[in-house]
Write a structure and sequence with these properties.
Elements: E1 7-11, H1 12-24, E2 30-33, E3 38-44, H2 45-63, E4 67-74, E5 77-84, H3 116-126, E6 130-136, E7 139-147, E8 150-152
Parallel strand pairs: 2-4
Antiparallel strand pairs: 1-3, 3-8, 4-5, 5-7, 6-7
Helix pairs in contact: 1-2, 2-3
Length: 153
């Protein structure tokens, strides 16, 4: 397991609820659906906050829609879903979107370095997780998957 000085076991659902609440306070555009279970993970809270800020910031910047955040669990993993309702990422950009400094064709005049999704993927993988992006007909879903140490209901 990837450990840093800030890695520890903690209950993820409450942590994400607080993080989203903090990030949504001024904008009222992020909606968290609290799950009916708990999930303990071994992760770096600072880096997980960085991931959450990045994904919500990207949705605000590019989709400019409300953002739904919800958590599911399956097969010993917990999945944190960040869902917006914008135009998504063009299919031709998808193979390159995690590349360092890559900016999609739909980035327009928005400021950015092309490092955000690269960093999210890297941090997630360092915590033995997985990061997925999926276009829907009405938006984009980013999913952070982390192994669960202990689950509860």
């Amino acid at each position: 397991m990837y450990l840093t000085a800030n890695s520890l076991c903690f209950e993820l659902c409450g942590f994400i609820e607080n993080a989203v609440s903090e990030l949504a306070a001024e904008h009222n555009d992020v909606h968290f659906q609290k799950p009916d279970f708990t999930a303990v993970v071994n992760a770096d809270k600072n880096r997980l906050m960085q991931i959450t800020e990045n994904l919500i910031g990207n949705s605000r910047k590019y989709a400019k829609t409300d953002i739904d955040v919800f958590i599911t669990q399956s097969d010993g993993n917990v999945r944190i879903h960040f869902r917006d309702f914008g135009n998504g990422i063009p299919d031709e950009d998808m193979p390159f979107i995690f590349g360092k400094f890559y900016r999609g064709k739909n980035s327009g005049n928005e400021q950015g370095s092309g490092l955000g999704l690269y960093i999210v993927k890297y941090i997630t993988e360092q915590m033995h997780g997985e990061f997925l992006l999926c276009n829907h007909s009405d938006g984009l879903e980013a999913t952070v998957i982390l192994p669960v140490i202990r689950q509860g209901s």
